[in-house]
Specification:
mainly alpha; elongated
Length: 113
């Protein structure tokens, strides 16, 4: 069985939204409301910054660095929690002998935490 990490197994949206706001500030953008920022959750951030804000590659790099700094050093990564019942579900599936895998577009170092 294949599960998506963010939004399916765990809720890390609060930390991600705060990190996205930090990324906007870093490149001089007005921080959009949470509904707009939620549109960034899922696709790779470099693409989202370019597509949705029209940032040049160098600006995307600055935004991504600010996002990751807030996400990792600011503790946002540690705010993610499994949804209620997820751990029991995964234990039950594993007990049945099913292979469980997790997919994410997140860098592996962040997903493994």
């Amino acid at each position: 069985m294949l599960f998506d990490l963010d939004g399916t197994l765990s809720d890390g949206s609060a930390g991600m939204l705060a990190s996205l706001a930090e990324a906007c500030v870093a490149v001089g953008l007005e921080v959009p409301d949470d509904e707009v920022l939620r549109g960034f959750l899922g696709p790779p951030l470099e693409e989202a910054f370019a597509d949705r804000f029209g940032l040049a590659p160098a600006e995307c790099s600055v935004a991504l660095a600010a996002y990751r700094a807030r996400y990792v050093e600011g503790g946002a990564m540690l705010e993610a929690r499994p949804y209620p019942g997820v751990e029991a579900l995964l234990d039950a599936l594993s007990a049945r002998g099913l292979t469980i895998a997790v997919a994410t577009s997140k860098p592996e170092v962040f997903a493994a935490e």
